[in-house]
Structure formats: structure tokens, C-alpha cells
Design brief:
Blueprint lengths: L9 E3 L1 H8 L4 E4 L3 H6 L1 E2 L4 E3 L3 E4 L2 E4 L3 H8 L6 E4 L4 H12 L5 E4 L2 H7 L4 E2 L8
């Protein structure tokens, strides 16, 4: 598998993403589970598969990212990939394109841009650690 070139990654802004999500696109949030729980875009079809994982040594790339995405989504699905600001999602989108995903797009600006536009978000309830 050859890595995709940056020009192979299609990036849409959050306004375009919001419209696409309303027309049955799948939202793939690649932030950490902790970031996702703190708040994420309100979308009809949303999945969280972290591209990076928090470890005692810092963040490292999720070695199972492609396998996890492949178990949930097909290479022919319409997919929008988002993260906090657009960097991780760009890298994740590039990796998905290289793996044969044909209809995958990066969301430029990520969750921060989504919030800046006052688009709807969902915050999960904090669970007590017992």
C-alpha cells in the first residue's frame, strides 16, 4: 500500500460537512475517547475511532485504526472524518484513501470550527468512576 499524496485528500469546511451529514454521510470522529465524551458534533450517524491514543509516554498512533474502521465502515461508504482542529483527521483521511476508501473527506477546522459556527453538539454525561 502506497501512502496517499496530500492532493488526494478532499477537505470540506464545516458548513459543507453539516449539509453532507444531513444527507446520510457517516461522521467518523478520530479524536480520543475522552475528547469525544467531552463533546462532539451532533450527527445522525457518528462513530468514534481514535487515530491517536493517550499513553503514559504521550500520544501514539492507534496501531489498529484501519482494522477498527474497516470493521465498522465499507470503502464505498460516504464518510466525513473529523477531529479537534483538522490535523489528525487529515492524516486519518489520507490513510483511509491509501487503503482504498473512495468517498472519504476531511473536515477542515474540525470540532473547534463546528463549535465556532454554533452548530449543534452532543455532550455525554460524565460517569462517576467507581
Amino acid at each position: 500500500m502506497f501512502p496517499s499524496k496530500p492532493e488526494d485528500v478532499v477537505t470540506v469546511d464545516v458548513s459543507q460537512a453539516k449539509t453532507l451529514l444531513q444527507s446520510d454521510h457517516q461522521y467518523l470522529d478520530v479524536r480520543t475517547e475522552e475528547e469525544f465524551r467531552r463533546g462532539h458534533c451532533l450527527a445522525p450517524k457518528i462513530l468514534n475511532v481514535p487515530y491517536m491514543l493517550n499513553t503514559p509516554q504521550g500520544r501514539v498512533k492507534n496501531p489498529n485504526f484501519l482494522d477498527q474502521v474497516s470493521s465498522l465502515l465499507s470503502p464505498t461508504d460516504d464518510i466525513l472524518v473529523g477531529c479537534q482542529s483538522g490535523a489528525r483527521s487529515f492524516n486519518a483521511t489520507s490513510e483511509l484513501v491509501a487503503a482504498g476508501y473512495k468517498k472519504v473527506r476531511n473536515i477542515g477546522g474540525g470540532y473547534l470550527a463546528w463549535v465556532d459556527q454554533s452548530f449543534p453538539i452532543n455532550k455525554e454525561q460524565q460517569q462517576s468512576a467507581n
